[in-house]
Amino acid sequence: QTCGNCRRLEVHVIKVVKFGGSSLASAEQFAKVGNIIRADKERKFVVPSAPGKRNSKDTKVTDMLYACYALAEADEDFRVPLMKIKDRYDSIINGLKLNLSLEEEFKIITENFKAKAGSDYAASRGEYLNGIIMANYLGYEFIDAAEVIFFEEEGAFDADKTHKVLSKRLEKMENAVVPGFYGSNPDGSIRTFSRGGSDITGSIVAKACNASMYENWTDVSGFLMADPRIVKKPKQIASISYKELRELSYMGASVLHEDAIYPARMANVPINIRNTNAPEDPGTMITAEAVHLESEDEPIITGIAGSKDFTVVALYKNMMSSERGFVRRILGVLDDYNVNFEHLPSGIDTVSVVMSNQSIGDRLDEIVDAFRTRLQPDSIDVIEDVALIATVGHRMSYRPGVSAKLFTALGDAEVNIRMIDQGSSEMNIIVGVDNKDFQKAIRAIYNAFVEEE
Ligand code: ASP
């Protein structure tokens, strides 16, 4: 658009802001959110979650809805639990002194529960009702996510249809509230994303309006370099690339829903994780390309994450390297048992198959037998109870001595390394250690790269 007087290009900067459940758990939290939104007029599109916990003993409204609907499904009386849910919303409405009643909405919900509208419908009401309150509070337009977020017949998110409809709808709007977490099936019924899915909606909205930024407001000031339950006061990550984050979240670092990265990444929209309770903190910036901050005190690594309970099956066979189809047969076995492999590190005559205990279930013996008969290896070693730890950082790839430092740290801490895998992007070193060494290993790596620099 050009501005009449100066004929300069007028850039309309749009920020999409998503607020998590704890940011919207009470009227006080809503008021903080209101201040944040009003402090920056670029914050035009708002994606709320359902009210979360007000304290550690509290229950999220989403969980209350699932429990309430389970009663409806079993033809039991659900009026009291539904009233408790209504009370949660009413206390927000009253606390904010809004002129709004959800009476009619709750009548409809009651009817739909009786008609067994489904647990997705039930859960989605958490964000739907919070969206209505948010729109009323801000004086923004309310868009029911069922009209703009779509799923395909088999349940996959329909990115094309959603983008088409949503971008058109937002184009004409100055401001709007789009509740997170749900959309609609081709038959109009409601479907939700997986738990924590409001993050995904925020990312989809950011892509649809070509936002300059997707701010994801939560109750922490962004990502930490390691799990604070393991490392004492880990440093904050100021900036991280999508790829690094993907590696870390895959390995267990949570804050943002895994599937929330993709839409924003497609549209090249940076994501800023911010803290509703400390809005002055800059949080963590997630960008398409790694930001090279070349400051002296910047750690070589971006973060450390990991999880426990994997099994490594190491296969040895003389001259394996010249035998065709060996890996194909490994994959055939995994396919037959419907097991995902996490890693497949290989040596000259060895291949290790790393699988999560969860996907193996109680079939380990059968799977090992299948490897034995179909691959005829000279020997098979099975190492159970392995924890995987990923040390991630784009700066690692062009600095020599990183792996030496990592292995020395683990050696000094007397941690036995059971497996090593370096991602081909070179920004990731994964080690397998005994479950019992999991915490010790993470602390050793953190201290070597961050504290002792
Ligand atoms: N309210 C939903 C949940 O608790 C979705 C979300 O908060 O993102 O999972």
Architecture blueprint of SSEs:
Blueprint lengths: L14 E5 L7 H12 L4 E6 L12 H13 L5 H17 L7 H12 L4 H20 L2 E2 L16 H13 L4 E2 L4 E3 L5 E3 L5 H11 L4 E6 L20 E3 H9 L10 H6 L4 E5 L8 E4 L15 E14 L9 H12 L3 E3 L6 E7 H4 L3 H12 L3 E14 L9 H11 L4 E6 L5 E7 L3 H14 L2
Parallel strand pairs: 1-2, 1-7, 2-4, 3-4, 7-9, 8-10
Antiparallel strand pairs: 5-6, 9-10, 11-13, 11-14, 12-13, 14-16, 15-16
The structure holds aspartic acid (ASP).
Task: Please explain how this structure is put together.
The protein is of the alpha/beta class and 453 residues long. It is 37% helix and 20% strand. Strands 3-4-2-1-7-9-10-8 form an eight-stranded mixed β-sheet, with helices on both faces. The site of aspartic acid has 13 residues, from helix 7.
State the helical fraction: 25-40%
Total E-strand runs: 16
Distance between the termini: 50 Å
* Ions, cofactors and other bound molecules: aspartic acid
**How would you state the average pLDDT, rounded?**
92
Helix/strand structural class = alpha/beta
- Gyration radius, to the nearest Å? 25 Å
What percent strand?
15-25%
What are its keywords?
six-stranded antiparallel sheet, 37% helix, alpha/beta, 453 residues, binds aspartic acid, 14 helices, eight-stranded mixed sheet
